[in-house]
Design goal:
By secondary structure, this protein is an alpha/beta fold. The chain has a single domain (about 20-335), classed as Glycosidases (TIM Barrel), CATH 3.20.20.80. About 35% of the residues lie in helices and about 15% in strands. Strand 6 (about 165) and strand 7 (about 175) form a beta hairpin. Helix 5 (about 90-100) packs across helix 6 (about 125-145) and helix 6 (about 125-145) packs parallel to helix 7. The longest helix is centred in the first third of the chain and has 20 residues, at about 125-145.
Length: about 425
């Protein structure tokens, strides 16, 4: 009988090579649960580890998830839904929430941040907007009282639609009607050392104008890029241009050194007939290229020495999300734990146990069920036109590494 081409040792070496393409130490992932067919949280742990994610953002503080990830070293952002902002203005209620949903899980579960509200400012609801900063301050005060403020910070996630202008990146500014509110929130971040979170989706730029927006530019594929006429900085992908537009907007109100994190970004693997670009191949390119970029630990053209802090949206396809088909198909994984498209990592089984009840969390225990998060409601995308050519070039260094690994594997057989 013919011997196999690669021995188990050789095969392992090659598998390690491909795994290293995708696994990055600083990757964050959004763990939404608007579904009724997701695996139990304990079965989710190996899936998270399989992609090298070390940070998770929840849309609530699901006790089942927080318990399942105890002693794993994975960092968590837990969240308070928009419907709880009014209550969180009350210091006693805020402290009670922090005790029950944060302090109770520390230090076994590494909760490092609380996100108060999601995309509040672009709902144009004055009550929500007026409650946002007081709620953030109240939750922070609770952390101080419980001596947890050195371990846990407080923030909120914004839609990119808070920008009035986003192109060129150097011209980024906030909406005039939001400047005062944003400045107060950023001042809070500076005083407490918390990050400024933005949800950014280049997908919407392509979906809105597929004939004008370069697909390669939004998918991190090789392209001729664009040059900012004011800063002379070159951009070869839209996400970096969006991030630097936020940096410019922050600088325009006097804050040049705020820590910006991308709390959501992703690409759907399926959509309706009018949702251009929502395919498994485009989703694979976007997320896999993004993960490789994160692994390089380099910043944007405007902030080259700052590591990227990005949370991919999302861990799972969520079958109960409202809206177009794309909303239910942002997951890296299907509910049974299989990959929605090839991720370059070994497949891991995760049996679906219908653990979710249709909310953003489990809806059980002491954590209130959060509202359905508008995970992809950002409409303020960066509209860029680029006549960049397509390129099918492969990374030579990757091929050389592959050849070296296979040569070593064959040598080990002899």
């Amino acid at each position: 009988m013919m011997e196999p081409l690669l021995t188990p040792i050789a095969a392992l070496l090659v598998a390690c090579l491909f795994s290293s393409i995708i696994m990055v130490s600083s990757l964050g992932i959004n763990y939404g649960q608007i579904a009724n067919n997701l695996p139990l949280p304990e079965n989710v742990v190996p899936l998270v580890k399989s992609i090298g994610a070390t940070r998770i953002k929840l849309y609530d503080a699901d006790p089942h998830v927080l318990k399942a990830f105890a002693n794993t070293g994975v960092e968590f952002i837990v969240s308070l839904g928009n419907e709880y902002l009014a209550n969180m203005k009350d210091p006693s209620k805020a402290q009670s929430w922090v005790k029950t949903n944060v302090q109770a899980y520390l230090p076994a579960t590494k909760i490092t941040c609380i996100a108060v509200g999601n995309e509040v400012l672009t709902f144009n609801d004055t009550t929500l907007t007026d409650n946002l900063l007081p709620a953030m301050q109240s939750v922070h005060t609770a952390l101080v009282n419980l001596k947890l403020d050195k371990l846990v910070t407080v923030t909120t996630a914004h839609s990119l639609a808070i920008l009035q202008t986003s192109y060129p990146p150097s011209a980024g500014v906030f909406r005039r009607d939001l400047v005062t509110c944003v400045a107060q929130i950023v001042d809070f971040h500076c005083k407490t050392g918390s990050p400024f979170l933005i949800n950014a989706y280049p997908y919407f730029a392509y979906k809105g104008n597929p004939k004008q927006v370069s697909l390669d530019f939004v998918l991190f594929q090789p392209n001729s890029g664009i040059v900012d006429p004011e800063s002379n900085l070159r951009y070869d992908n839209m996400l970096f241009a969006q991030i630097d537009a936020v940096h410019s907007a922050l600088a325009s109100i006097g804050y040049k050194n705020v820590c910006v994190q991308i709390s959501e970004t992703g690409w759907p693997s399926k959509g309706d007939a009018d949702e251009a670009g929502a395919t498994p191949e485009n989703a694979r390119k976007y997320n896999c290229n993004l993960m490789k970029l994160i692994g390089q630990k380099k910043g944007t053209p405007m902030k080259p020495n700052s590591d990227l802090n990005i949370y991919v949206f999302a861990l799972f396809n969520e079958n109960l999300k409202p809206g177009p088909s794309s909303e239910r198909n942002y997951g890296l994984f299907k509910p049974d734990g299989s990959q929605a498209y090839p991720l370059g990592v070994p497949a891991i089984s995760a049996v679906s146990n219908n653990s979710s009840s249709g909310g953003s969390g489990s809806g059980t225990g002491t954590t209130p069920s959060a509202s359905l998060p508008p995970a992809s409601s950002s409409s303020g995308y960066l509209a860029i036109t680029s006549d960049s050519g397509r390129s099918l070039c492969r990374c030579k260094s990757l091929l050389l590494c592959l050849v070296a690994f296979i040569s070593l594997a064959l040598h080990l057989q002899c």
